[in-house]
Amino acid sequence: MDFNLSEDLLELQKWAKNFAKEKFSEKAYTWTKNHKVPWENAKILAENGLMGMTLPIEDGGQGMSLVEAIIVMEEVAKVCPSTADMLQVGNFGAIRQLAAYGSEELKQRVLPTILAGEKLISVAMSEPNAGSAVTDLKTKARIEGDKVIINGSKVFNTHGPHNSYYVVWVNFGDSVKTCGAVLVERGAPGFTIGKTETHMSGEEHCALYFEDCEVPVGHILVPDNGFKRLFTMFNIERMGNTSRSLALAQAAFDMAVQHAKEREQFGRPLAEFQGTQWKIAEMKMKLEAGRLLLYKAATNADKGAPNPLDANMAKAYINTTAFEVAHEAVQIFGGYGYSTDYPLEYIFRRVRGWMIAGGTPEVLKNKIAEDVLGMRFSQRRPKTGGEKVVTKS
Fold first, then answer.
1. In CATH, what class is 228-377?
2. CB-count burial class (<10 Å; 0-12, 13-18, 19+) for 36
3. What is the pLDDT of residue 390?
4. Which residues have a Cβ under 8 Å from the Cβ of 105 and sit 6 or more positions away?
5. Is the full-model pTM beyond 0.90?
6. Residue 220's Cα: distance from chain center in Å?
7. With contact defined as beta carbons under 8 Å apart, do 88 and 36 qualify?
8. Acyl-CoA dehydrogenase/oxidase N-terminal domain: from which residue to which, for each copy (predicted)?
């Protein structure tokens, strides 16, 4: 069993590291502060074949493995998190649901604009009362002739004010078995984009409103009874979330190590204090353990979707430890780490968000336990009282 990257992967990693530093370092960490989308960087990514790395060649992609895409994502995210968000759009997010389940006509019309770095796409999943309880979707869709009519609302839509396409998770009926997804384009009749808001990290999001919104029936990506299919692709989105979280934690760690060597207190470098040494050791162990979980999930997936258990373990562990690593990095930097003149405070805020987006550690641990025990546990109150209902898988 060899835990080292192959020569080809090491070459890719080296290239991606140099490429990211050369192309994206100058404006890194300025995009969010200025509330701008790095469109110019998205086009640079596209020109170098990095938008659509994981998509099949027949869909305009590169046909690369998930491991290759994650290696590139890590190097880009360590330099410029906002540019890594563009990589997420072009490789791991809603684009995978479109590529996997969209009609040929729809893919031929929409995918090229995303892969060229010209337009953005996102998943519209969360609702006011359906976050972790995603099966409680209240956004309804019904088919009338050659149209799909959508009513409902979504919240926390990533890049929502700037997206051109939205993969909207809907319910065609009244149960989890009738959940599916529809592609809605900006400007569709009855579709309204809410006011722009910002997360703690500074990233923009918005609510989406559908009032008898009409889209062609050919925009149905997943019909009813397709919830498992949706989450198959969503586990790939989680890999993008997880790799960015790990990358930013690694960046924070690298900064902290360098600072510990250079910063002096009481006449000697911080690195000579045992308290600092223990922090550095703990941070390193967490990063290495997280990377092994991530690479295992990606390697087992190859060019497909990761095993849910692998994906859940990687995301739950890395999201949590990335926040812990960023916290310790800020502590090692002291007042400088808390200053907005340095990137550490942004990293600290940004990795905190990934502990919520795409599945919280708490929800993921529930799923991990279910897989290990071979049982399913309902989180809902039993209708007749008594113990929580447990079913075998």
1. mainly alpha
2. middle
3. 59
4. 218
5. yes
6. 23
7. no
8. 6-118
